[in-house]
Amino acid sequence: MRLTVLGAAGEVTGSNYLIECAGSRVLVDCGTFQGRDDETRNKTPFPFAPSTLNAVLLTHAHLDHSGRIPLLVRQGFTGTIRATLPTLDLLDVLWRDSANLMREEAEWKTRKNERKGIPPVEPLYSLEDVEKALSYLSPASYDERIDVAPGIAVRFRDAGHILGSAILEVRLTEGDERVTVVFSGDLGPQETVMERNPAFITEADYVILESTYGNRLHKSNLESREEFRSVMKDALSAGAKVIIPTFVVDRAQRILYELMLLQKTGAMDSAPIYFDSPMGVKATEIYRKHTNLMSSEIQSWTARDIDPFMPDNLQYVSGVKESQAINEVRNAVVLAGSGMCTGGRVVHHLKHGVWDPNNHVVFVGYQAKGTLGRRLVDGETNLRIAGEDVTVKAKLHTINGFSAHGDRNDLLTWAANFIPAPGAGAAGPVFIITHGEPDASESLAEGIREIGRPAIVPTPGQEILLSSRREEAEREILRLIPAASATDSVERLLSEIAVLASAMKEHAVSGRDYADILPLLQSSRTLLETADGRMAKEAVPGSKPRG
Ligand SMILES: [Zn+2]
Ligand SMILES: [Zn+2]
Asked: Using an 8 Å Cβ cutoff, are 414 and 190 in contact?
């Protein structure tokens, strides 16, 4: 039995895990990388043949968990993709949108390339690949055991993150070995607003735990609502425009709900609210359709026939012309994606809005390293936005309490639910900390160790042999710790070199004379050959060759 961490190791995006057990191979999540070098990384071939997989288990619809599944299908995967019913509905919207965006971008790049005599650009996947992937989807009910492949069964449990999100309890059986691996997926706070609370799980041999906010604390709901109320009230009564970059799925619905609450308490005037996203209507429709799976707070509104996602003066914007017209509007609220300002219509609203000291930008979600949103939050004042140099003068606010992720205390509270397995002594399961920037993951791992549980932060591509026998599991973890805690581990460097090499291949222009660069590359190759020679000598006969 083996678990390979293929993504979200020491970073937030690109979730992807391979489980191998009893001759079966199952993938948990298969998400896109976002941020630095993302294009090259998303294109990097999978380290397995997609046709050899039995199934994919999907924790939730967000693209950093689901976005490379159509690519998997394009490359030969024909198995089943298991996810909850709302996730299935959301994927239909998110995947189509992402294929359309990729097609538009590839067409634009191809036109640019044509003028330079460079070959056309292919999108990562097409709408046909998406259709095919959608046809492999199979709904999973919450709390039911599902046999996925020989030796592998799963139970989807509430994760409290977004509509349809799930924690996966994966049960592996090989001979007389039985191992339970729990994947937290993205985990909501202990006290959720729109979703049901994360399931209380007590038994596992291994827990793969996210750590987006592993070193941070959120403000309480009450404080965050007060903060939001005061920002919105001040800005709107001063006649300002408030731009809210938001994920179109979940965070947008949460903000619509919060805006409705503000209106009900009289804290907001009649300023128009523009939800500028062609996907917005569809995503909100899916939320309405599945309110039965949402929190009692949300259901208390629907029970009174009040639509919690429909504040007064809400206007859905779909056409580009209507969207551009918002540039001229002064006093309004503008909700638009993408949530981290890496693309989508919010980029144009920022380009036309952040130079103006009268405007406000309110960040209500996580901003990953390298994204435009993060650069704004980090206080950069001179930015190039959609091809134009812009000086940032608008007032910026960050309200992190609306997060769909638990904070450090939430994560530690959830982790403390796990009790030691019979015969495991005092220790509980082994925690494998992923889905966080290195500082956040390391800090959470430290916190888990403090509550007496072993915890490691894996490196990209790290393989972990799973065992129900405690001593074996601990030996394996001890073997992994030194590699995992060194920032410059061999695995990490090798994957960085591979990414760099693909990026350079991309940048290379055929026909150009590279006399200045060739010697650099030749010496790099010599160095790598020397390192490889030494590694080969050290390799123990029979062990898996590295690199
Ligand atoms: Zn998520
Ligand atoms: Zn995520």
From this structure: yes
Ligand with smallest separation from the Cα of 65: 2
Distance from Cα 512 to the centre of ligand 2, integer Å = 41
* DSSP one-letter code for 179: E
pLDDT at 227: 96
Q: Are residues 337 and 410 in the same domain?
A: no
Find the 426 Cα to ligand 1 centroid distance in Å.
33
Domain count, the chain: 3
**pTM confidence score:** 0.83
Residues 391 and 247 in one domain: yes
In b/e form, how buried is each residue of 131-141, taking b as 16+ CB within 10 angstroms?
ebbbebbeebe
CA–CA distance from 361 to each of 248, 327, 399 (Å)?
16, 14, 11
Q: Using CA atoms, how far apart are residues 414 and 209, in angstroms rounded to an integer?
A: 10
Which residue has tokens 């406000």? 360
Query: Which of 351, 338, 136 minimizes the C-alpha distance to 244?
Result: 338
- One-letter amino acid identity for 527? L
CA 15 to centroid of ligand 2, rounded, Å: 7
Cα 142 from Cα 166, distance rounded (Å) = 8
Ligand nearest the Cα atom of residue 15:
2
Whether residue 423 is found in the same domain as residue 507: no
Is the domain of 331 the same as that of 477?
no
- Which of 231-235, 289-293, 453-457, 466-470 is predicted least confidently? 466-470
